[in-house]
Specification:
The protein is about 90% helix and about 0% strand.
């Protein structure tokens, strides 16, 4: 955690960087977006791969929970895809 003075200074540096070098700032922002997308994709693959095992080992309730989580994850991926086009 940054102190209030450090946070203020960091925000000042960020604003200055955004104003003086927007290309660099845009590239850094794209990296964060890409990382989020990859994490969501990885979560989706892991959930789909674990769904049969969860149903067998945990029963129907675990399958329903995993299915709902997959629906939420799919909605987040859809929203992220539409936002960053």
């Amino acid at each position: 955690m940054l102190s209030k003075e450090d946070q203020r200074r960091f925000e000042q540096i960020t604003r200055h960087l955004r104003a003086t070098d927007p290309d660099f700032f845009a590239r850094m922002d794209d990296r964060v977006r890409g990382r989020r997308g990859r994490l969501l994709l990885l979560l989706t693959v892991l959930l789909w791969a674990s769904l049969p095992a969860l149903i067998v080992l945990g029963g129907g309730l675990a399958g329903v929970i995993c299915g709902v989580t997959l629906l939420i994850n799919g909605g987040l991926m859809w929203r992220a895809r539409r936002r960053y086009r």
